[in-house]
Each structure stands twice: as C-alpha cells, then as structure tokens.
Amino acid sequence: MSAVRGATALPSSPVALAFAHIQWDPLGSLRLTAQETALLRMAETNPIEYTLADSRDASMYARVLLKLLAEASAAGSGNGEVSRITEKCTQEQSLDALDADPLGVVTHYAITKLYDIISTLRVGSGVTINTVFYVGKEGVLVDQWKALLRILNKGGKGDAYAQTGAAVCLAQILITACPSKQRTSTAVDKDGKVIKARPTSYASAVEPLEALTAWIVSQLKSSSGSTVGLSIPALTALMGSPESRLLFAASGGIKYLSRQLRMGGKKQASKSGTPDKKPMGKGTSASVQQLYELAFCLWTMTYELNGSHSVRADFAKDGLAVAALTDLVSVAPREKVIRVALAALHNLAVCTSEVNPGPAGTKIDGTVFLSDMIACGLMKSIDYLKDRQFTDPDIIEDVNALYKLLVHNYKEMTRWEVYKNEVESGHLQWGSVHTEAFFKENARMLEGSDGDFKLLKVLIALLPSNDDDVAAIACYDIGEFVRHYPNGRAIAKRLGAKELVMNLIEHENVEIQRHALQCVSKIMVQNWEYVK
Length: 532
Known about the structure:
Layout: H1 34-45, H2 48-51, H3 55-74, H4 91-100, H5 102-123, H6 129-133, E1 134-135, E2 140-141, H7 146-152, H8 160-175, H9 179-184, E3 187-188, E4 194-195, H10 203-220, H11 225-238, H12 242-250, H13 253-272, H14 285-301, H15 309-316, H16 320-331, H17 335-350, H18 366-375, H19 378-386, H20 393-412, H21 415-425, H22 436-442, H23 454-461, H24 468-484, H25 488-494, H26 497-502, H27 510-524, H28 528-531
Helix pairs in contact: 3-5, 3-7, 4-5, 5-8, 7-8, 8-10, 8-11, 10-11, 11-14, 13-14, 13-16, 14-17, 16-17, 17-18, 17-20, 18-20, 18-21, 19-20, 24-25, 24-27
C-alpha cells in the first residue's frame, strides 16, 4: 500500500444559498474599493477557470477574498448568528441569516471561494497556488494569510465551518512551499510547454506552518469529537509532505493523534461488542469516517519512521500508537479502517534504525514495535482476520506479512519477556502468563534488576483501570505475586496495593469483585492454599 497524498473535501457552507444575494455596496465595514467590488461581481458571473486563467487576476481575486476575511473578522464576525448554524439551511433560512449576520455570511462566502480557487489551482496546469499566494522575486508568502490564522484563533467556540475552511485553505497554501512539493510540481502553458517554476520561499512559510500545526495539535488534545473534526481536513493536507509531517511530529502530534484513535476505537468497541468473536461492528458512519481519517494520518506518519529516530521514539512512547492501531484492527468497524491500521502496523513492524540510529543504547526498530503488538494481543486479532474474506488485496497481504513477523518474533521471546511487555503496555489479556504455574516460576522476576519492583508498581497502577479485564487481571497477578514471592505480602502492602484492591471489592463487575476479594485474601492470609 503506497502513501496516498489526498485531502479531505470541505463540505458546503450551511448558508451557501445566501451567497448569490450578498449586496457589497451597503457593507461599508468591509472597506472595499470600486475595483474590488467589480472583481467580486465579475467572478460571480464567470466560470472560476476563466477568472484564474490570468495570474494577475487570480492573485487580485485571492487577495480580495482574504481582505474580506480580515475586515469581517475585525468588524466582529465569527461569533454571530451564522457561527451557531451547523445544519444546512433552506433558501429562506439562509436569507434570514444574511439579514441577521451579513458579515458571518461574507466570511463563509470568502472561505468557500478561496477553497474553490485552491482546489482548481491544484488540478490545473497553468497558474499555480505558488504564483497566486507567493509574491516577488523570492516568492514570499503574502501577508494576508494572517486573516486565515485569525479565524482559527477566535475566542469562544468560534465558527465551525469558518475554522475548518480557514485551516484547510491555509494548509494547502503553505504545503506548496515545502521543498519536496516544489521538486515534484510542474506547470505547462497553453501550448503544452513546461513553464519554468518561479521560486517559492519555504522560509516565509515555516512560521505560519508552525502556527497552523500548533492549532491542529491543540484540537487533537480535546476530548470532543466535533472539535477534533475541525482539524482533520487541514491535518490530512499537511500529511502531503515530509517537511510538514516532521513538523507535526516535533509538535507532539503523534501522541495526541494516537490518543484520539485509542478513544475512538474504544467507543466503537462499546457499540459492537467483543470484536474478535463477532462480525464487524457497524458504528455510525460519521464516527467511522473520522476514525478512518485519523488512522490515515497516523499511517502516513509511519513513512517517516526509517529516517527519524525521534519519530520512532514518539511512536514507541508508552506503546500508545500500537495499542490504538491494534484496537482498530480488533474492533474492525469498516474494511477501509482495517486497511490503513494494518498498513501502519506493517510499516512499524518492518522499520529500521540504520539511516538514523539515534543516541547509543536507544535503538528503536521493528522488533520493539512487534513486541508491543504481541503485548497488545494483535496475534489474536490477526488469527481472526486470516479467516475473514476481504475484497482488498492490500489487507490480505498485510495480514499474512504481520502474521509471519509476529510468529517469528514470538518464538524469539521468553515467556517472561511476553509478560513484561504486556504489563508495560497496560494491555492485559487472559492467557498462559496469568496462571499459577507462571508465577511459581517467575514471581522473583518482578523485583526487577534494580530491586525497585517497577513492574509490580505498574500492575498496582493498573488497578483503577476503566478496562474491566485489565483491572481483574491486575488483581489476579498481584495476588499470585504475594503468594509466590518471599515477604510478598509486606511489599504489596507497602506499595499501596491493599487499599486499591479493597476499593474494587464492591465494583459493579462481578469478575472484578471476585478477583479483588481473592487478592485481598492472599494479602491478608498467611497460608492461602489452606483457605482454598
């Protein structure tokens, strides 16, 4: 599966039916000149390709639209009637909105037209985004771009359509300045001859790119799905170049993207039941689409693994990315979601540290991620997927490749390594490492090489987990440690295990109650085997 550099389409404005009825002359706060008003009217009467055929007309039109955004924003748009409209309006409702909040409608109009310009220039062969939005001999980004950033940084809840549109327009404008995009872009004249590309200053786009990336990451930090949704079209656009992907990684984006995927996967799991024993969960189309787009972005980020130690470190941190992708494969909400999740896992499994190894003693490569995958129970999900029928050959290829890699890596690991990785991942699952026989043999290993009982502390920290299986298994493992480690009762008490387990005795889940009660008994009773 090759990297696809697509972009999420911007939906229509909810007040789009009012656009044709905007009267420019009465809107004095926009401070339009007669020439600018005439240009707007001309653009309305001609096909957009005609307006953009000449680079000077195209540049002037784009700047007038950016001016509309700047002046409307300065006059207070963004918090009026239009900003609260989320559903598509009828003609009558749109006209009412125009009467109540004309500047809000103008903002939507300007963003819609800017998006149309950018979309047309992206597929055209003559005038380009670079020639319209970058000026002078050095090709410096036009100052007016700040109008788009202002919309993103509006106080309060802001205008969802305006923010989504401003972010994706800004992303598409800025990404064209990336050196990797300039090397691959060519334009031809009407006779089919290649036009020599004018220079574009990447330096002039770096600061705006950093500001946009910071805004996107701030949205990903949110727990609200609708807030996250505002940033997805722009984030997808930024995935189109290595420069913007690395900038996103440097801003901590991988962590927050993985966290959003993990939360989304858990929501899907709660809707569809136990995923690896039931048919694919359906989920709602909106939530599944958002999961797909987030997974697409995380998959695209995996193409930076081989060249960047810091990107590999971000993916490896806390095992969050692998856990999120494994959850998606397990939940299996749609075939397209499985496809990108498997492709991302495959890239993680085969990544190397040869090009950029990083500091000595910090080697992170595919074996690290394979261990995380085993700890998260991916082998069980892959076994399930091997028996399914898929129409997409990419899925079949990735399932088979991951199966071979996981089996090979599993054979190389001792049972203790499997257990250690599972506990450190926080993704506990019932199996052969959660048995009396295992703890008889390995209880002493929990003291750690430094005698700090680090792994036991992790188990204790997992007791309040929202995942019922994780909490129950943690109770069981702590109880078995207490039984089989000399003075284990005193150590567990000293580390605070007793109090946390006691809190679970009245848990609503019967299994957690049972394991918590047994664990407390093992901590309190000297000879547990006689009680049994």
